[in-house]
Amino acid sequence: MSKGEDQKKKLLNDLYKHKKAENAAKKKRTDTEVEIEKLYGSFDEKSKTFLEEELGFKIKIKKNSTVKLDQAAYAQARVEIPEELRPEKIKFEVDSEGMKWLKKNNLEIYQVVSNCITEKPGKTSVTVEKI
């Protein structure tokens, strides 16, 4: 094995090992959070803070929930709701497939839309699996 292949193997093994340890630690953390939530009981608010001065900790328990809108049902009901009373936020987002199509088929409109878009590079994702 060459020096470069040795380095690749070491890095791939390291990443694989670290990811496994990270997943195990995350499971332990979430299991511990469940136990802490049980200890502090239930409450009606979305979040509550407990001060444990003698233990040297402040604990904030936040109840998260997901609210999902049935798009088809709301589209029908929306016409009956006065505009100023609609509990909605409208957010425009880019359709990347649509942008590819515009670039290929209607460059003039593509250029108008592309002037409104900013693209920032994100974090590169690396996945390593044992085979």
Structure notes:
Helix 3 packs across helix 4 (107-114). This protein has 131 residues and is mainly α. The radius of gyration is 25 Å and the shape is flat. The chain has helices spanning 3-40, 71-78, 96-105, 107-114; strands at 47-52, 57-62. The mean pLDDT is 92. The protein has one domain. The chain has a two-stranded antiparallel ribbon with strand order 1-2. The longest helix has 38 residues, at 3-40.
- Enumerate the strands of the largest sheet in spatial order, edge to edge or round the barrel: 1-2
Q: Would you tell me the structural class of the helices and strands?
A: mainly alpha
Q: Which parts are unreliable, with pLDDT below 50 for 5 consecutive residues or more?
A: none
Distance between the termini: 19 Å
**Which percent bin holds the helix content?**
40-55%
Net shape: flat
Biggest pleated sheet? 2 strands, antiparallel
**So how many helices?**
4
**Series of H and E elements:** HEEHHH
- Mean pLDDT equals 92
**Count of distinct strands:** 2
User: What fraction strand?
Assistant: 5-15%
Instruction: Write down the Rg.
Output: 25 Å
The number of domains: 1
Provide a short characterization of the protein structure:
It is built from 4 helices and 2 strands; from the N terminus they run αββααα. It has helices spanning about 5-40, 70-80, 95-105, 105-115, and strands spanning about 45-50, 55-60.
